[in-house]
Write a structure and sequence with these properties.
Number of helices: 8
Order of helices and strands: EEHEHHEHEEEEHHHHEEEEE
Largest sheet: 8 strands, mixed
Shape: globular
CATH architecture: 4-Layer Sandwich
Radius of gyration: 18 Å
Helix content: 25-40%
CATH class: Alpha Beta
Number of domains: 1
Oligomer: single chain
CATH topology: Purple Acid Phosphatase, chain A, domain 2
């Protein structure tokens, strides 16, 4: 995957021939409403990137967490404002519902549209070079999320606990002069059961694209940015804005690449970016 990552300039991308510099942007798994959301970094990213179409590929607002406890700092409002501003200035925005923001799914059948923002459960995107891609959050292809909600809820709690432990662990590493290290990323890549779950998810999505005669898929859900071929289908995953700070970008020739906005080692450098915490964990780095 690393060979696909491309450094991003901190200067606003220039417009090409009067058009936005990017044809399409995909962002997923922001989890607004949780302390782990890297909202300040996302606002900075959106400020520096202009596009014709913006896909918000699910789990943008974390309804699961907000039902339990209200958490909404100014940085999270700033993300919403930035998206609304882009829509007002002509960017077509599609909000693709996910499992954490599934409360929006009941409005899809009514054709919910707010100006230049449309709420959908999925969409077929046609790239500049004519490829047809399924844009979906991906939870519909996750057997655990779809059929075993209590296990999904348990896994969500375990992930939150892992992130909390990871925060304190990296505080100690920083004091020792060591770089940031992600426990959750290590588990996804090395723990056999986690690898198998992710692999089955990716293969299921690829089979669905074959069934619909589509060229590929753009999804999120598993918080792991990647572009690769699976059974002749191009699999694209946006990653997340909790640890990865990644997005997918299509240029005007149809080429899609992963953009990583910030290095993991710099993830918690800014004081406005809040680490995931429970009661007793400080609210800023």
């Amino acid at each position: 995957m690393d060979r696909l990552l491309k450094p991003v300039s901190r200067k606003p991308a220039p417009r090409v021939g009067g058009k936005p510099s990017l044809r399409t942007l995909w962002i997923s798994d922001v989890h607004l409403g949780t302390p782990g959301c890297q909202a300040a970094h996302l606002v900075d990213f959106l400020k520096h990137h202009d596009c014709r179409t913006l896909y918000l590929v699910g789990d943008i607002i974390d309804g699961w967490k907000l039902r339990k406890q209200w958490y909404w700092p100014q940085e999270h409002t700033n993300v919403i404002r930035k998206v609304l501003t882009k829509a007002k200035r002509g960017t077509r925005v599609y909000y693709v519902t996910g499992n954490h923001d599934e409360f929006l799914r009941k409005f899809v059948r009514f054709g919910l549209s707010l100006g230049n923002i449309e709420v959908v459960n999925e969409r077929i995107h046609t790239t500049a070079d004519g490829r047809r891609l399924l844009v979906t959050h991906g939870d519909a292809f996750d057997v655990i999320t779809r059929y075993h909600r209590w296990i999904a809820a348990l896994g969500d709690a375990a992930y939150e606990a892992t992130m909390t432990a990871n925060y304190w662990f990296n505080r100690l590493r920083a004091r020792a002069g060591l770089p940031y290290w992600s426990l959750s990323a290590f588990a996804k890549q090395r723990v056999k059961s986690a690898v198998n779950v992710i692999s089955r998810f990716e293969e299921t999505v690829a089979h669905e694209c074959h069934r619909r005669s589509l060229d590929g898929v753009v999804c999120g859900h598993i918080h792991h940015a990647e572009i690769r071929e699976i059974f002749g289908v191009t699999y694209h995953n946006c990653g997340d804005w909790v640890e990865g700070c990644t997005a997918l970008a299509e240029d005007h020739n149809g080429r899609i690449r992963i953009l990583r906005w910030i290095k993991r080692g710099d993830l918690h450098q800014r004081g406005t970016v809040l680490p995931l915490r429970r009661t007793g964990v400080p609210s800023a780095v």
